[in-house]
Amino acid sequence: MSNSSTRHDGRQPDQLRPISFEAGIAPHATGSLLVSFGATRVICAATIEPKVPGWMRQQGVKGGWLTAEYSMLPYSTLDRKPRDISKGRIDGRTVEIQRLIGRSLRAVVDLKKLGENTLWIDCDVLQADGGTRTASITGAYLATRLAVQKLLDAGKLATNPLNDSVAAVSVGVFKGQSLLDLNYIEDKDAEVDFNVVMTGQGQFVEVQGTGESATFSNDQLQDLLKIAQAGLENISSQQTAFLAQQLLKT
Description:
Blueprint: E1 19-23, E2 31-37, E3 40-49, H1 54-59, E4 65-72, H2 84-87, H3 92-106, E5 118-127, H4 132-153, E6 166-174, E7 177-180, H5 184-188, E8 192-199, E9 204-211, H6 218-248
Parallel strand pairs: 4-5
Antiparallel strand pairs: 1-2, 2-3, 3-5, 6-7, 6-8, 8-9
Helix pairs in contact: 3-4, 4-6
């Protein structure tokens, strides 16, 4: 890491923002919570639909399916963000993030154990201050785990289809310094920007990285991955503690 100076919000370069989870935010979903990474706040809901997409039936694919939708509410940003429906199409960024959330969750879900069900993951950003996609993935796993437990308790699933946990975090280079969990001020002007998705067992699911306004060296790459892994281990521990508390209530 280039130096140990503090950031504008008082954090150390390798320090996460305060993270919190609030369960049951959407009572009609099978499982839901509000996830907060600092000022970034996302409602994540998992809903089971007792059918599978037509293409699965046509192709004779066994098991279930998992898909994700993501949106930023108009008032989530400093300037009002028009809804996609008002533009008549989903923008490219939204499509990219939806696919990333879906891939991340499917990496830890055994779809055959899901039965002939579709698990819908909905992530709606209430307030955006950087890292909305990584907060969405982190919260989406927890919403899915809560939904699965409800189905197990009701006898609607024979076994738990989740084989691991999953979480995500951003890292980047801002003013020449490697930082963990970038907020908006850092993210918008970062020279290098990464999103890292990892399972609880420490396996990478996806690494998205780009030099926004600069190139990066192999040493910088390794530094970013190192602080991302440490941050994700911390997030995974917080997920585990939250679930332990919630599942005691069931």
